[in-house]
Design goal:
The complex is a heterodimer.
Chain A lengths: L3 E8 L5 H9 L16 E7 L2 E7 L11 H12 L4 E7 L3 H13 L4 E6 L1 H7 L1 E3 L1 H8 L2 E4 L9 H12 L13 H17 L9 H9 L3 H4 L8 H15 L3 H20 E3 L5 H11 L5 H41 L6 H19 L2 H17 L1 H15 L7 H6 L4 H6 L7 H10 L9 H11 L2 H28 L10 E4 L7 H35 L10 H12 L3 H9 L5 H10 L4 H7 L6 H31 L1 H13 L6 H12 L3 H9 L10 H10 L2 H13 L4 H11 L2 H29 L8
Chain B lengths: L31 E7 L6 H6 L7 E7 L5 E6 L2 E6 H4 L2 E3 L5 H4 L5
Classes of the chains: A alpha/beta, B alpha+beta.
Chain lengths: 767, 106
């Protein structure tokens, strides 16, 4: 007997297929109470006794046709690949609609196993099934399963084991479309048989005959069937004359009629209950007047929850990375491999840490969104938002990705897969990066407190987010009117009944998306940190405009104390003994001693001596910073910044902000650390007050605003472009996205800066 | 009263359901009706047919979305959101089945 089998898992959207897949393979695929969670087919393997089974999880579809990308995937997968058995998962609470797909699967004559899922809910609803009768009807074994329960799939495993041992003589479905139609099918079947198409040898000709008779696009697209087209048309004309129904819905009509009869015979319903609560919630949630206000309240709480819960975790992570940085600096002497030391601490830990600080924010947002998705609310949100979104050229389903965009653009772009209309999806992806993502927050958090008084800080933050949303909506509208013109596609979306999400699934769901952000931190940010570090250090400047080293040495020398000065310090016993001996040993007051002396009560004489040292130290720091700044200008970053300054000057950027903004194109988090390096402030984060001081000294309020505007409008990070390439399957769209956003950012910032300068808005220096 | 009452028991509101040439688009909220015919010019007919929007299926109008085109219809025990423009092409049966009326309390 064969040891390897391929089994496909097919079913309607939201019937619990992925749940069954996970239960069988032990894998953890993303399960959501949101139609269209699986768009590509995924596969996993598991062992049953000693047989290896490769299980393919197909996207959820209503029919075996090609009226959506999902259906196309399923059609191709089932007709092209060699599949030993199909497990058809049926939501047994709504058997009539789910069995519609079953009728088509049965016609494939691939051994079929029916899993009547959600058996517990069907039972609660009062549905009774005449299983033997149904089995005979579809020519396949039926088992009842409960996908989310541990033992709920046991009967399925047993049935699968039996079925695989007995693949040769599986049952034949008793599906008949009434006499005259069956006759037409027979005629076409015979014609196809004479064609002897090798490619579809494993699929009965009758399946294709039925598909051709309903003008199914997937079947009509296959060139091998061209010879029978004329016969098909003749048969369709013949049938239409008799039944007066359109050809393409003819078979659908017959199938439902067939099922209606079959269900009448085999399924009885004692009471209708399950949907009652769900329906009552929906009467309020999707109400014409209450729906939108409720939606906004829910979204408000989603963000409130995200930011409140994440705040403490963000502090911890920040502390952790700062601690790590200091630890390494403490044990790694600055003389040993200074470049490597600084690359590791300032470059890598600083860069990656800066990204990871936002992980809690993003994970909590995704957790909140998982609750909305798994409970079933998300499709209601799409329903109530559709009207508004459509006014801007988008649609209800664009809404979820746009909200995710506030967390991280990368998973948000992946979430656009649920948008069926290719045009709407492209427009959504094009404007998505304008939703201000978590990484951009670092820039606002640095700039806003530097240039705006506390009273206006929250307002400014709000304004920035709002500008992003407004521009996104306007851009979408313009794109829809020009580039992506055309009639909208047919819109049909299922609103699944509300369910209480399981905690495990929520966590998994959150992790699934958060992973994308982590991967970005691990790859793009890591590489960007290293590249920027190199750009910031090389080439090294050897000859400076002033002899900084000599000047520094001079100040160092002036710090040295004469013996009478040391005696003067010792005279009054105001200085602790430990500090004194330290001073005696070095003949100077070291930084550590200065710190202890800060709180000591000193006499005027002593204070004068200490002040002299302090003044010398300040001069040394100044000289060092000037030296650093000069060598900075000499590096690759400095040269690029200077070269581009003529272009960026018109939007208010000097060469420092220009290099930082260019670095920010790789990842927004880079901006703050880059600017910190350029202003020779060493380690900085967005809370660094010394860097803010520098900013206030060098830039106006208007320039500060322009920096934020530019980073809001340009691409969030390189990972965004990479994910667009993956989703759209071409670099073309990544390029278009990057280019249009850069252009938009430049033009709008240009307008704002020029108008602001002309009207003298925020152009005075604050300090 | 001599007037036929609507199936959903909403009285006059549902009397609209009795009018001739009624389409799914103007089926009042809370009312049930059966599909009589799907117009041949309807876009995506196949797609709608696949979820059960074929002649003979009973539909319940559940809600209208705010601002614009979407409606929520219960078809074969599942809530489906679709466009009113599309729903205009689905002609509902104007002959109410009086015998069913008594057994339908909602």
């Amino acid at each position: 007997m064969k040891k390897n089998f391929t089994v496909a898992l097919a079913g309607n959207p939201n019937c619990g297929k992925t749940c069954i897949f996970n239960a069988l393979t032990g894998a953890r695929q993303h399960v959501g109470n949101y139609p269209g969670v699986t768009v590509e087919s995924k596969s996993g393997s598991f062992f049953l006794d000693d047989i290896e089974i490769r299980l393919i999880d197909l996207p959820g579809v209503y029919s075996l046709s090609s009226s959506s990308p999902e259906e196309d995937v399923v059609f191709q997968e089932l007709t092209k690949t060699d599949i030993d058995l199909i497990i058809n998962v049926v939501d047994s609470t709504i058997p009539e609609r789910n069995l519609y797909l079953t009728t088509q699967l049965a016609e494939l004559h691939i051994p079929l196993l029916l899993a009547f899922n959600m058996a517990d809910e069907a039972n609660k609803k009062g549905l009774k099934f005449d299983i033997p009768k149904l089995e005979k009807y579809f020519g396949s074994t039926i088992v009842q399963t409960i996908g989310y329960k541990k033992n709920g799939v046991k009967p399925l495993l047993e049935a699968l084991s039996t079925a695989l041992k007995n693949l040769e003589n599986h049952g034949v479905p008793m599906l008949s479309y009434s006499h005259d139609i069956d006759d037409s099918i027979a005629v076409i079947t015979q014609k196809i048989d004479t064609l002897r198409i090798e490619k579809y040898r494993h699929i009965p000709a009758r399946f294709f005959a039925i598909k051709l008779l309903e003008h199914d696009t997937a079947a009509m697209r296959i060139p091998e069937f061209k010879p029978v087209w004329n016969d098909v048309e003749t048969q369709i004309r013949h049938l239409m004359k008799k039944h007066a129904i359109q050809a393409d819905t003819f078979m659908a009509d017959r199938r439902y009629a067939m099922l209606s009869g079959a269900c009448h015979d085999t399924i009885s319903m004692t009471r209708a209950k399950r949907h009652e609560i769900s329906d009552k919630i929906d009467n309020i949630m999707t109400n014409k007047y209450l729906g939108l206000p409720l939606f906004f309240v829910i979204i408000y709480f989603t963000f409130y929850f995200t930011f409140t819960c994440a705040a403490p975790f963000m502090t911890y992570i920040e502390m952790l990375f700062n601690g790590l940085n200091q630890l390494i600096k403490a044990i790694w002497a600055p003389e040993v491999f200074p470049y490597l030391r600084s690359l590791l601490t300032d470059g890598i830990i600083g860069g990656v840490g800066g990204v990871l600080v936002f992980l809690p924010n993003i994970l909590f947002l995704f957790f909140a969104i998982a609750i909305l998705e798994d409970s079933g609310y998300m499709s209601r949100a799409a329903f109530v938002m559709d009207g508004i979104m459509r006014k801007f050229g988008l649609q209800g389903r664009s809404f979820v990705p746009l909200i995710l965009g506030f967390g991280c653009t990368v998973p948000a772009i992946m979430a656009t897969r649920t948008i069926e209309s290719e045009r709407d999806r492209k427009v959504t992806i094009m404007v998505l990066p304008l939703m201000s993502c978590g990484a951009r927050l670092t820039i606002y958090a640095l700039i806003i407190p530097a240039f705006f008084v506390l009273k206006y800080q929250a307002f400014m933050m709000w304004i920035i987010y709002l500008i992003g949303v407004a521009i996104a909506l306007i851009a979408a509208l313009i794109m829809k009117k020009t580039l992506f013109k055309g009639e909208g596609e047919v819109y049909l979306m299922e609103l699944p009944p509300y369910r209480v999400p399981t905690f495990k699934s929520l966590l998994f769901h959150m992790w699934d998306r958060g992973k994308a952000y982590l991967q970005k931190a691990g790859t793009i940010i890591l590489v960007a940190s290293i590249i920027l570090f190199i750009c910031n250090t090389l080439p090294q400047k050897k000859v400076f405009s002033e002899n900084y080293d000599a000047q520094i040495a001079q100040f160092q020398k002036s710090k040295a104390l004469q013996s009478f000065q040391i005696d003067a310090l010792a005279k009054n016993n105001t200085i602790p003994e430990g500090a004194l001996s330290e001073i005696r040993k070095n003949n100077t007051i070291s930084a550590a001693v200065l710190k202890t002396l800060k709180d000591a009560e000193l006499t005027l004489d002593e204070q004068a001596i200490v002040n002299h040292t302090l003044a010398a130290n300040a001069e040394i720091t100044k000289l060092r910073n000037r030296k650093k700044a000069e060598s900075m200008e000499y590096t690759i970053s400095g040269k690029i910044g200077h070269a581009l300054e003529p272009i960026f000057r018109h939007i208010g950027f000097d060469w420092k902000v220009t290099t930082a903004s260019l670095g920010a194109l790789a990842a927004k988090e880079v901006f703050v650390s880059q600017l910190g390096i350029l202003y020779a402030q060493g380690d900085v984060d967005q809370n660094s007050s010394s860097l803010r001081e520098q900013l206030r000294k060098h830039y106006t309020q208007l320039q500060g605003f322009c920096i934020m505007l530019f980073s809001l409008l340009s691409i969030p990070c390189l990972a965004t472009l990479a994910i667009i390439k993956r989703e759209m399957n071409s670099w073309k769209w990544s390029f278009i996205e990057g280019a249009w956003l850069l252009l938009l950012a430049y033009i709008l910032t240009f307008i704002v800066y020029q108008c602001g300068t002309f009207l003298h808005i925020g152009t005075t220096m604050l300090s | 009263m001599g007037m036929r009452k609507g199936k959903c028991g909403l009285g006059c509101k549902c009397m609209m359901a009795q009018k001739r040439n009624m389409t799914l688009a103007n089926l009042p909220i809370g009312c049930k009706a059966t599909i009589l015919k799907v117009m041949p010019q309807m876009r995506g007919r196949k797609k709608f047919a696949d979820v059960g929007l074929v002649p003979g299926t009973e539909l319940l109008m559940e809600a209208h979305a705010p601002f614009g085109g979407l409606i929520r219809v219960k078809v074969l025990d599942t809530s489906m959101a679709m466009h009113r423009d599309d729903a205009q092409n689905i002609v509902m049966n104007d002959e109410e089945d009086d015998t069913k009326q008594a057994s339908d309390p909602s």
